[in-house]
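thought: user wants a sequence for this fold. calling inverse folding tool.
action: design(structure=
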C-alpha cells in the first residue's frame, strides 16, 4: 500500500512538473529592440513582393521606424506580454497623412525570428494567430534579427 501511495505521489509530481515545463516562456519585450530584416510578408492573403521587403525595421523600447524608398514610417507601440498570444498596440506617428492611425496586433519571437500580425483597419479585430487571408484582412510579417552590417 505504501508503494502505491508513493508511486501515485511521484506520478502527480511528475505530471505537474511536466505541465510546468510546457508553459510558454515569458515574452521579453526588450528582445524586440534592435534592427530587423523582413523575411516574408502577407497582406490580406496576398504575398508581399520580395522587392518590397528590403527595408530594415528598427525597434526601440516604444517606437518602430521603417524607412522605405517612398517614406519613413514611425509607429508608437506597446506590448501586453501577459496576453496569449502576446498583444501589441500600434499607432502611426509619421508620416503626417497617416498620423493617428491605430491597429491591434500580436507578436511572437522564436530566437532571432520575430512574427508580427495586425489588422490594419481601425475597427479590425486583433488577430488570433499568424495567418493572413482575404477574409481576416490581417497583415503578417516574419523578420530576422539584422546582421551588424545591415542598414
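)
observation: tool returned 151 residues.
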Amino acid at each position: 500500500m505504501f508503494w502505491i501511495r508513493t508511486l501515485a505521489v511521484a506520478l502527480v509530481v511528475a505530471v505537474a512538473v511536466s505541465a510546468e515545463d510546457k508553459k510558454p516562456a515569458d515574452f521579453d519585450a526588450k528582445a524586440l529592440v534592435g534592427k530587423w530584416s523582413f523575411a516574408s510578408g502577407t497582406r490580406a492573403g496576398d504575398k508581399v513582393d520580395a522587392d518590397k521587403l528590403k527595408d530594415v525595421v528598427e525597434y526601440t523600447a516604444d517606437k518602430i521606424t521603417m524607412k522605405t524608398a517612398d517614406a519613413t514610417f514611425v509607429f508608437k507601440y506597446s506590448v501586453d506580454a501577459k496576453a496569449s498570444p502576446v498583444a501589441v498596440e500600434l499607432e502611426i506617428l509619421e508620416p503626417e497623412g497617416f498620423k493617428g492611425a491605430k491597429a491591434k496586433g500580436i507578436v511572437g519571437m522564436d530566437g532571432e525570428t520575430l512574427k508580427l500580425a495586425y489588422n490594419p483597419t481601425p475597427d479590425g479585430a486583433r488577430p488570433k494567430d499568424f495567418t493572413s487571408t482575404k477574409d481576416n484582412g490581417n497583415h503578417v510579417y516574419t523578420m530576422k534579427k539584422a546582421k551588424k552590417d545591415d542598414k
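thought: summarizing for user.
answer: Here is the designed sequence. The beta strands are 34-43, 46-47, 56-59, 63-67, 72-80, 87-94, 102-110, 113-119, 139-145.
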